[in-house]
Structure formats: C-alpha cells, structure tokens
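A favour, since you know our structure tokens better than I do. Could you add the entry underneath, on a fresh line?
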Amino acid sequence: MAGSQSKYDRLINRAKQAPAVRGAVVHPCDESSLRGVVQAVENRLLIPVLVGPADRIKTMARQHDLDIGAFELVDAPHSEAAAARAVQLIHEGKAELLMKGSLHTDELMRAVTASATGLRTARRISHVFIMDIPTYPETLFIADAAINIAPDLDAKRDIVQNTIDLFVELGLGTPRVAILSAVETVTTKIPSTIEAAALCKMAERGQITGGVLDGPLAFDNAIDPQAAETKGIRSAVAGRAQILIVPDLEAGNMLAKNLTFMLKADAAGLVLGARVPIVLTSRADSVRTRLASCAAAVLYADARRRAANLKPA
C-alpha cells in the first residue's frame, strides 16, 4: 500500500513547491467541504476565497472547530448565487481555480457553461479521474466518466487533448494513451472502434498533440502486458497505458467505480477545458484524494500562468 500512496504523495509534494493558488470555493456549507479547504491551506496548496452564505459558513466552521478566520469570505445568499459570483471572480482575475463545495455539481456547471457569463473556451469541457490503484504501477487517468454522456468524434478529440495537456502540465512526461473499446480490431459493428482508429490518425496528422495514442484497445490489452502479448499487439501503449479514453460516460463511470470499490483505488478528479481548472470534490473523498485533486489543479493553474507569463492572482 505504501507504493500506491507515493503516487499521490509525489503529486502533492510537487504542488507544495509551486506558489499557492487563489481558489474560489463555491458554497462550502458542510463539514467535509470546509475541512477540505482547511487541509489544503495547511498543506500550502490553496489561498481560499469562500463564496456562499457567510453566516451559515461561519456557523458550520464553529460547530466543527474549524479555523477559517483568516480566509476571505464573499457573501452570497444561496448556492446558485454563489456559483455565479465565483465565476465572476474568475473573470475579475481574483481567483485561478474553482472548487466545489456542498452544492450540486449541475448547479456549479450551469454557471461554468453559461453562454454569456460562463468560463467556456474553444475546447469541449470534460472531466478526468486521476486514479491511484494499488495493483497498477502507473497513475491512471480515465476520461470522460462524469460530464460528456455520448461524445462524438470532435468531442472525443477535445477530451483526449484536455487529458494529455493535464498529464503533461503535471510534469508526468509524454503519456501513453489507450482509446478503449470492447475489442482491439476495427469493425463497423462497434462504432467506437472506428472513432478510436480515427483519433489515432488525428494524432498522426497533428490534430492531437503531446501524447502517444493507440486504439482501439480492449481494457485488458491496454493495461496488461501479457494480455497484449497474447493478442499479438505491439505498440508503445499496449499493456502500459497511462491514460484511458472511454467510449462513453456509462463505460467510464462503471470502470472508475469498479476500480474504486473492487480494488480500493482512490479517484481524484478535475474538470478541464474551461478557463480555469475545476475541482469536483465528494463527501466520500478521503483526505488524500481531496488533497490530490487540489494539488493537480494547483499544478495545472501554475503551469498555465507561467505559460502566459502572468503573476499569481
């Protein structure tokens, strides 16, 4: 288990070397979301701006003996208003990431994706799980298992590129990307195999950059060298994947939850493709998972800031 812990620990320790990032925490009105903020501050990852009903947040902090006296607090009457105000803080340059508190994910994402006031870019917004699996030597990225239900080829291109960009900006090198399907051969009977082959061709033509792609690959020959060898698949990716691109949300969600509940994997996660990284925490997340999600967002925000030659917010 110590080996698996070192994957997240290395990520968190790298983030501690970067400047702490100013982040808008949206509606942190329960113990778990407030405690996660306090832990991120204690680990020198976050400079928080708490956005939500001020009296309720202060009461929750007192009830659970959480010291938030030094945190900036922006009053907003309810969760919807808090999401809108947090997005506005991003536009004003007063925060560099968003962190979900105790509101529903769809409330936050409505503010993020609003056509006139949101945080959309030219890229499709997507989600990635950063999985720490005790039985797998690599930190495994899985996309998209949370936002895009049935992405078409153009959306999958953005999902792949978003995930590669995160992997690279976290300092993990050039990723090996497996485009998953049920089989490893291209067949018209399974449309995801055709899209997998198209994505690989797009990478060859420079429409996807920064990673090494192979697909279609079934799950076993994407992550198990013996399975790949048995099938006669020889590539830089087969059996050694670091990123798994799933055919649709249902497949990805089942895969991520299988790994979490059957193999006791941790699942940190980020939303990508917006103007800033977005941390979607869950009340069920462990302390280490929360910190890993925050650390990934901090490293990504810092890399983007340095690339644009900007000063911290």
